[in-house]
Write a structure and sequence with these properties.
Elements (H helix, E strand, L loop, with lengths): L1 H31 L1 H4 L6 H37 L2 H7 L8 H20 L1 H23 L13 E8 L5 E8 L7 E12 L6 E14 L4 E14 L2 H7 L11 H13 L5 H14 L1 H15 L4 H27 L5 H26 L3
Antiparallel strand pairs: 1-2, 2-3, 3-4, 4-5
Helix pairs in contact: 1-3, 1-5, 3-5, 3-6, 3-10, 3-11, 5-9, 5-10, 8-9, 9-11, 9-12, 10-12, 11-12
C-alpha cells in the first residue's frame, strides 16, 4: 500500500514534466535548425516528419530530468506535509520510500536502453536525411529570376526569366570547382532538379555553349551543345546548415562498438568510438543515478518547490559537466573509456548510497 501511494506521488509529476521538457527540447531543436526548417520549400508535413524522427531523442533527453524533478517534488511533498514524520512515528523506515523511486529508475533506464538500440538512432539518421532533403529543396526553391545565386559551393547560377514548364530562360552557369579550368555555360533554357538517387543537384541546360579558359596557358575554347547536365555537390551546404546530423547518435551502441573494433584492427584511432559508446551507455543509466541521489535528497529536503527546481538544474548541470569532463579525459587517453563514460554515474552513485546509508541509520527527521 505504501509503495503504491509513493509511486502515485511520482508518476503524475513525471508525466507532466516529461511532456513539458519534451516540448521545451523540441523548441530548442527547432530554433537550432531554423535555417532549414523555416526555408521557403518547407511544409507542415515536413515539420511533422521531423517531429516524429526527433521524438525518441527528445524523450531520451527529457526522461531523466523529469524523473529527478518528480522525485524532488513528489517525495519532498511528503516531508513538507508532515507525512514523513507520521510514518517514522509508526515505525516505517524512511528507506522504504526509496524502493518505488529505485524501481521506477530501473524501469526508465530500461526504456532508455530500448530507445538507444532501436528508435533513437533510427530517428536521428532519418532526421539528418530529411534535413538534407529539405536543404536541397530550399536551394531549388530559392532560385529566382534576375538574381545571382551562389549558395552551392563553386557554382554561380543566373536565370533571366522563368519558363512555362517551371524551368528558366536565359541561363548563365559559372563552374569554378577546378580553378585551373573554370567553365562558363550560357544556354537558352534550363532547369534545376534532384540528381537522381543522390542528394545533390543537377543543372540541366539546353541549346547553349561552354566557354573554357586556362589561365596558366592563356588557352580559350568554346563548345556548342544541345543538352548539358552538370552535377553540383551540396556537402558544404549540408555541413553549414544541417544541425541535426550527429554520426555517433545515428548508430546503435553495438554498431559503435563494432566501428571501434574495426578502427583498432585497421590501425586507426579507436578511442573516439569507444568513448562515444560508453557516453551513450552512461546516458542509459542516468535515471538510475538520479534515483540514487534524488530520492534521499528529496527526503532530506528543507524548503519549498523553488528549492526543488534549483536543485534539479544544479544536479543536471553537475551531471553534464562530469560526463563531459570524463568523455574528454577518455578521448585524450587520460582515463579508460569505460571510466570516462560512467564518471558522472559513479559520482552520483557514491553520493546517493552515502545519503541512503545516513538516512537508514539516523532517520530523515
Amino acid at each position: 500500500m505504501l509503495r503504491r501511494y509513493v509511486l502515485r506521488e511520482l508518476l503524475a509529476p513525471l508525466a507532466a514534466w516529461t511532456a513539458f521538457l519534451g516540448f521545451t527540447f523540441l523548441m530548442v531543436a527547432f530554433l537550432k535548425g531554423t535555417d532549414v526548417l523555416l526555408g521557403s520549400a518547407v511544409g507542415w508535413n515536413d515539420l511533422a516528419r521531423m517531429l516524429g524522427y526527433l521524438a525518441p531523442q527528445l524523450l531520451v533527453q527529457a526522461l531523466p530530468v523529469a524523473f529527478l524533478l518528480a522525485m524532488l517534488l513528489g517525495l519532498g511533498r511528503l516531508a513538507e506535509d508532515g507525512e514523513l514524520k507520521a510514518m517514522q512515528a509508526l515505525g516505517v523506515p524512511p528507506a522504504r520510500l526509496f524502493q518505488p523511486a529505485l524501481a521506477l529508475g530501473v524501469l526508465l533506464a530500461g526504456v532508455q536502453a530500448l530507445l538507444a538500440f532501436t528508435a533513437q538512432p533510427w530517428g536521428m539518421a532519418a532526421a539528418s536525411a530529411e534535413a538534407n532533403e529539405i536543404i536541397r529543396r530550399n536551394l531549388m526553391h530559392d532560385i529566382k529570376p534576375g538574381v545571382f545565386h551562389e549558395e552551392v559551393k563553386d557554382f554561380t547560377f543566373y536565370a533571366q526569366a522563368g519558363a512555362p514548364d517551371g524551368g528558366w530562360r536565359g541561363v548563365l552557369l559559372f563552374d569554378a570547382r577546378d580553378p585551373g579550368t573554370p567553365l562558363l555555360l550560357l544556354a537558352e533554357s534550363g532547369q534545376v532538379k534532384p540528381a537522381g538517387a543522390t542528394d545533390d543537384l543537377a543543372f540541366e541546360l539546353r541549346r547553349g555553349s561552354i566557354h573554357q579558359s586556362k589561365p596558366s596557358t592563356g588557352e580559350y575554347s568554346t563548345l556548342v551543345f544541345e543538352r548539358a547536365e552538370i552535377l553540383a555537390g551540396l556537402s558544404e551546404a549540408r555541413l553549414l546548415q544541417n544541425r541535426f546530423s550527429n554520426a555517433f547518435e545515428e548508430v546503435t551502441p553495438l554498431e559503435l562498438r563494432a566501428m571501434g573494433v574495426r578502427a583498432a584492427s585497421e590501425g586507426r584511432e579507436a578511442l573516439p568510438f569507444f568513448t562515444a559508446l560508453h557516453w551513450r551507455l552512461g546516458q542509459l543509466l542516468m535515471p538510475l543515478a538520479f534515483a540514487l541521489l534524488g530520492a534521499p535528497l528529496a527526503v532530506l529536503r528543507r524548503g519549498g518547490r523553488t528549492w526543488g527546481f534549483v536543485f534539479t538544474l544544479a544536479s543536471f548541470a553537475a551531471y553534464y559537466a562530469l560526463a563531459r569532463s570524463g568523455a574528454q579525459a577518455a578521448v585524450t587517453g587520460k582515463v579508460p573509456p569505460l571510466l570516462g563514460g560512467q564518471l558522472a554515474n559513479l559520482v552520483f552513485l557514491a553520493v546517493g548510497v552515502a545519503l541512503m546509508w545516513r538516512i537508514s541509520r539516523k532517520g530523515a527527521v
